[in-house]
Amino acid sequence: MIEIKKYSELLEKTKNALNSFIDNEFGHIPIVNETEWATPDWTIVYYKNDLIATFYNIIEREITVDGKIYKIGGINNVITPKEFRGKGYASKTLKNTEKLIFDELKCAFGVLLCADNLIPFYEKLNWYKVKCPVYFEQSSGQKLWGANIMLLTKNEKLNPAKIELNGLPW
């Protein structure tokens, strides 16, 4: 069963469980610990026998791409607990998110900040890597993103020269 819920409406015990998974998966990575992150707008959870089998968040944001403003759906913290990996749950759930991003939230495209080793996984789901500077906000000022960025578009692929996230990264 896939549950799509506003992050602000999640039960505290669900938020705690998701944060525990996030900390276990990404807590050891320096860029994660050194960066201030945006609070999600939506959380998508795939349950298998009432257990969290995969989940991720979506941030709704207007970003600037080559001087133009676009509403986007930013995907973050795609995590499948170890005992559920290799069963296609994340792929299935991410494909269902396309309808949410494009049709329900009316986003122009999806945006994903991505580790090198995960690029092939997302490419199988029609995400594609773009090479351009990506700027984001931190309390210390504007910073340049140092890792990969991937996009999901409904129609033609974008080849931007510059992206500004207009806020905290996700």
Please sum up the structure shown.
With about 170 residues, the protein is α+β, with helices and mostly antiparallel strands.
Written description of the protein model:
- There is one protein chain.
- 24% of the residues lie in helices and 38% in strands.
- By secondary structure, it is α+β, with helices and mostly antiparallel strands.
- It has a single domain, classed as Gcn5-related N-acetyltransferase (GNAT) (Aminopeptidase), CATH 3.40.630.30.
- Strands 1, 2, 3, 4, 5, 6, 7, 8, 9 and 10 form a ten-stranded mixed β-sheet that branches.
- It is globular, with a radius of gyration of 15 Å.
- The mean pLDDT is 95.
List keywords for this structure.
170 residues; alpha+beta; Aminopeptidase; ten-stranded mixed beta sheet; 4 helices
Which descriptor suits the 3D outline? globular
Order of helices and strands: EHHEEEHEHEEEEE
Q: What is the CATH class designation?
A: Alpha Beta
Sheet having the most strands: 10 strands, mixed
Uncertain segments are none
Average pLDDT taken over every residue: 95
DSSP E strands, number: 10
Question: Which homologous superfamily in CATH is the superfamily?
Answer: Gcn5-related N-acetyltransferase (GNAT)
The helix/strand class is alpha+beta
